[in-house]
Amino acid sequence: MLEIRWHSRAGQGAVTGAKGLADVVSTTGKHVQAFAFYGSAKRGAAMTAYNRVDDKVILNHEKFMRPDYVLVIDPALVYVADITANEKDDTIYIVTTHMSTEELIASQPKLEGRKVYTVDCIKIAQETIGKAIPNTPMLGALMKVSGMYDIEFFKESMVKVLKKLPQKIIDANMIAIQRAYDEVK
Amino acid sequence: MADTMELRDIEVWDGNMAASQALRQVQVDVVAAYPITPSTPIVENYGNFTANGYVDGEFVMVESEHAAMSGCIGAAAAGGRVATATSSQGFALMVETLYSASGMRLPIILNVVNRALGAPLNVNGDHSDMYLGRDSGWIQFDAYNPQNAYDLNFIAFKVAEDHDVRLPAMIHQDGFMTSHTAQGVATLTDEAAFNFVGEFQPMNDMLDLDHPVTHGVQTEEDWHFEHKARQQHALMTAALPKIEAAFAEFEKLTGRKYNLVETYNMEDAELAVVCMGTSVETAEEVSNELRAKGIKAGVIGIRVFRPWPLEQLAVVLKDVKAIAALDRSSPHGTVGTLYNEIAGSLFNTGTKAVLTNYIYGLGGRDLTKAHLVGIYEDLKANMDAGKPTTPLQQYIGLRGPKLSFF
Amino acid sequence: MEKKGWDGFEIGAMLRSFDGATRDIATTLPENRPYSQSNSFTASVADWRIEKPLFNKDYCIDCQFCWIYCPDMSIISRDKKMVGIDFDHCKGCGICVEVCPTNPKSLLMFPEQKDEEEALAEWPKKDKNAQAEEPKED
Q1: In a domain, B5, yes or no
Q2: Nearest CA among B268, B383, B398 for reference residue B324
């Protein structure tokens, strides 16, 4: 069972990102789950979303999770959200930030000794999609770090997930995914 | 004629989308709705499908849930295939009209996305609303995941509209835990889905102008009791066999098998947890883990809550030594509903099983695998002692000092 | 109406107006309609009356006021002509008499046992002092 936790702000597309990932993974014959914690969530409020991936049917519906990956798509959440909650020894963190990995860990000592990767999904999204919607670039970074799927296959699959959007938005998302894939460190 | 939608064999849908796709595929004529979290997307999606030509139907926006069900009653009495969705406070406001729908024998389908009842206000999932509907004369199906929410809609239409049944039916799913959790859903083609349910066959419909009929009549003590008896007779004798027949036909079509009472690891089980909703599957996973350690743990899921499968439940619990009834609703003043129902099912059977009650998960509080392991440990102690070793009713997952009664 | 047992009637809180199919019901006279047993038309309320209205066609101007005002649809009118009273459904409320505008009135209340011939013979003459009566508006 592969488990992923997203830290996001309501409106940044973590739910869409988690569902998009589930959609792609499902086409490869694996079983998936994508869900989120909602309160009376207003745009901008911190929230979490979750993915489970397994070769077997997923029966577990508990919200409690010890994640294999933690994806942080808003830079400030590193400091205000409990991003290391219920971590495992080998939990991998991918964080959106303008800083280098070393600078990030220096600014948030909780991350010391963890496997941490950084990528500026906000900047990438602004420069490609034109809006600070960092969800799809984060998936590009996840593909690089996890080696889950070949990036070309992943992008082709994401085109299908995003098919209801205008073509130029889809194209921009593909560039964003590729850039995050290339830039994550 | 509505457009066909091409679906992949497996779609990643949350429970709401699964339910609304089923409403589209059976071509519901009328949805009268007053959207409420977390069921909103069901009627929203139906409205979307209708506006885009995928359903030849009518979305009626009304001013309250009471009006929503009233609109459904009118449309059903007129002779249409009718459905809607609601949750929580909206369900509570509908209750008066639920009794009208069942008393008038109108086969309306209501998707209830289970949510806590305030106060305090809460949008998350528990079974308070489901329990509130239990005496309303509706058939109540319970889904444990989005696939179930999809499948049970087809089964519900088929059973409810059967002229030997003619009773409304609810499909319950857990708010957020199912309704907003995307999972793989094996789909039916539009054609196969529609053909499973078939064309709506009207009965006593008001639009049959050659046979004028008055719906919603008044009866006093001279007729009321007979009407209620007739309704109960249909629910108690016709509904269960028709549900089982629909389950069998659905299995033939899809390979997916449903049962009035779902059993998991129950063949030689000594310890059994009985619950509903997503908790059933989480308990199944825990029972697998306990089985690996040699503990004979099983799970029973109530698939059809009304009519209550009393005899079927007694059979599957026959050889069990300790049973936990898990209620996701505050019973306020007594033991949980499942405790009472199970006790009632077993009382005359000569069982020696020890039965205890757990209140859990109110307002969406997580039911963890660790909680379930703890429950099975209690059951093991009860089995070994041959009597309850804990209070009869315990609250789990609650902060503060331990709370229990009886 | 026959009190059937719980399994002896159609399901649902519904009642049928007619037995079998009906077409063009609006142009079918009530006495020719196949009213069902559950339709109130098949029930008599004649014994509810203490007084009954009687009709004197000599004074009637076929204004149809009585037909419009009768709460029990018990004024029988054919081709806009007043014909008489449906005594199976008239409860003797007297509204038809109240609204009758002729002088003397073409409808008057009498004790239930009153002989019609006798009543007609005693019918009051025109009151020369009375003003033409209009239906009251209150």
Answers
A1: no
A2: B383
Best mutation site among A21, A59, A66 for testing chain B: the one with the most B CBs within 10 Å?
Answer: A59
How many residues are recorded in chain B?
A: 406
C2 touches chain B (CB under 8 A): no
The residues on B that touch A, with CB distances below 8 Å, are 8, 10, 12, 14, 123-124, 145, 174, 176-177, 180-184, 278-279, 281-282, 284-285, 366-370
Dihedrals φ, ψ of B22, to 5°?
-65, -40
Q: % helix / strand / coil in chain C, to the nearest 5?
A: 20, 15, 60
From the list B145, B176, B368, which residue is nearest A38 (CB)? B176
CB distance B203 to B76 below 8 Å: no
Backbone Cα Rg of chain C:
19
Residue of C nearest to B222 (CA): C3
pLDDT in tens, B171-202: 999 999 999 999 999 999 999 999 999 999 99
Query: Residue B278 and residue A61: Cβ atoms within 8 Å?
Result: yes
The 8-class DSSP code of residue B265 comes to S
The rounded distance, in Å, linking the Cα atoms of B91 and B70 is: 13
**Second CATH level (architecture) for the domain C45-121:** 2-Layer Sandwich (3.30)
Question: Where do we find the tokens 């004798």?
Answer: B237
Q: Which residue of B has its CA nearest to A49?
A: B181
Chains interfacing with B (3 or more CB pairs < 8 Å): A, C
- Residue spans of the domains in chain C: they are 7-43, 45-121
Domain boundaries in chain A? 2-183
Q: Does C11 touch chain B (CB under 8 A)?
A: yes
Interface contact flag, A38 B282, Cβ < 8 Å: no
Q: Are residues B290 and B240 in the same domain?
A: no
Beta strands in B280-338 (DSSP E): 297-302, 304-306, 322-327
Domain membership flag for residue B335: yes
- Mapped onto helix, strand or coil, the DSSP state of residue B373 is helix
CA distance B15 to chain A (A): 11
Mapped onto helix, strand or coil, the DSSP state of residue B341 is: helix
Q: Is the pLDDT of residue C131 over 80?
A: no
Structural domain for B46, as ranges: 10-254
Q: B322: which strand partners?
A: B271, B354
As a residue count, chain C comes to 138
- B15-25 and B40-51 are packed helices; what angle lies between their axes, rounded to 10 degrees? 40
Alpha helices in C7-137, H assignment, sequence order: 65-69, 95-99, 116-121
The token pair that represents B365 in the structure block? 């509080």
Do B99 and B77 sit in the same domain of this protein? yes
The DSSP H or E segment spanning B243 is helix B240-254
Q: Which of B254, B285, B309 is the last residue of a domain?
A: B254
What ipTM was predicted for this assembly? 0.92
DSSP string, A71-135: EE-STTHHHHS-TTTT--TT-EEEEE-SS-HHHHHHH-GGGTTSEEEEE-HHHHHHHHTSS---H
Co-location of B382 and B288 in the same domain: yes
Tens of pLDDT, residues B35-89: 999 999 999 999 999 999 999 999 999 999 999 999 999 999 999 999 999 999 9
CATH fold of A2-183 reads: Pyruvate-ferredoxin Oxidoreductase; domain 3 (3.40.920)
Burial of B269 (0-12, 13-18, 19+ CB in 10 A): buried
B73 and B158 share a domain? Answer: yes
pTM of the model: 0.93
Nearest to B184 among A31, A38, A61 (CB): A31
The residue of chain A nearest to residue B146, with distances taken between CA atoms, is A33
CATH number, domain of B183, equals: 3.40.50.970
- CATH code where residue B328 lies: 3.40.50.920
How many whole angstroms separate alpha carbon A11 and alpha carbon C102?
79
